[in-house]
Amino acid sequence: MSKNSDAKQLLELIGGKENIAAVTHCATRLRFVLQDPQQADVDKIGKLVSVKGTFTQAGQFQVIIGNDVLAFYNEFVKVAGVDGVSKEAAKSAAKHNMNVMQRLLANLAEIFSPLIPALVVGGLILGFRNVIGDIKLLEDGTKTIVEQSQFWAGVHSFLWLIGEAIFMFLPVGITWSISKKMGTTQILGIILGLTLVSPQLLNAYAVVGTPADKIPFWNFGFAKVQMIGYQAQVIPAILAGFLLAILEKNVRRVVPEYVSMIVVPFLALVPTVLVAHTVLGPIGWAIGKVISSVVYAGLTSSFGWLFAAIFGFTYAPLVITGLHHMTNAIDLQLMAQFGGTNLWPMIALSNIAQGSAVVGMIYLNRHNEEEKQVSIPAAVSCYLGVTEPAMFGINLKYIFPFLCAMTGSAFAAVISVGSGVMANSIGVGGLPGILSIKPQFMVIFFLAMVVAVVVPFLLTVALGKTRYSAKLQNTGGIPVK
Hints:
By secondary structure, the protein is mainly alpha-helical.
């Protein structure tokens, strides 16, 4: 069936041109904002040859096409007679279909999404530094590679230049991202972030060990303000970033255009920096500390295994709702406060488990060449940290592999948390995630990874061969619902 034919059918099945408020695409999906999402015939759309799956997230009806999405998108807009829009415009239109909580989560996601490539690179760098600088691999396990080689010692030191820029100066990225999202002056956002991590300030990591009378301060005569930095802090940067954007927008409304270039930046930036260091910074620090302390206490308590089992089992469904975006902020706060995160390893294990369930489906469906064209690339991308093709293209389509993956993820999470596994940072959320794990926990995390691979695979194959055996296609294919 041609793309033209599928495009025509898709147009009909989503309710026609009149039901399309906006349409755009990303790397693998068409993203629709529909006037009435109920008009979309999800079951029939999922059966189109060109379609790998569908799901609704953040107010958008998303149709998974695959790597040739651009060609399909071009054909669709031609057939439908509609104009495509940017992803930002589609997101803005989609907010009309979202409740207050969904809008809040969408805004949080939009702040962190531009930062994820840097965070992943930072995680890989810290992971590589782990291997050469912290694991004693040489001379019968008594020396590290860095201790034996000046070249690798230089590499180890050089790579921290990048790691420091990513994690220590994270507030700069956050305040820039907020300015970009809010449509305000991005350079002001960058400058605000720099004022939170300036070398003039006492480094956030040194505050705890510094006596109160030794902390530097600005003396205004009638008041003193402590000169404390907010390196790697998330919530203070978010609060300051939104205050700057709100001030700039409101000041711009009342200031005459002919003096706005001078007046607006001054009246927006200076008060924001002052409020950030006197009010928002300390409040944000306290909020972040409470959140991270509660999560850390829960994961390290005698009931940590229960928390781990629940989180491991429910993380994949959280991805569907978009709630998983909040974990980025929690992970970064844990890293800042405890020097690592025990939450992120469970996320990596959940991703691995979803990929393993797809591998189980590949085995069950090994004679179905058409299905393998979808499932094999989905499994590979899932093991490399991109779960959408696996979850929405295979596991959710047939339900039982999704549940098998959730179960395997729960078992692996219990092993990880029960053994005190900590990651240095966020990394690639799949098999390469082991590089982000602290060296002393790599062996036990590898065991958890094995569980995340084996359990979902065996459960998927077992269910596919027993409970659903009567419904399997004669080719050995996927059970027919």
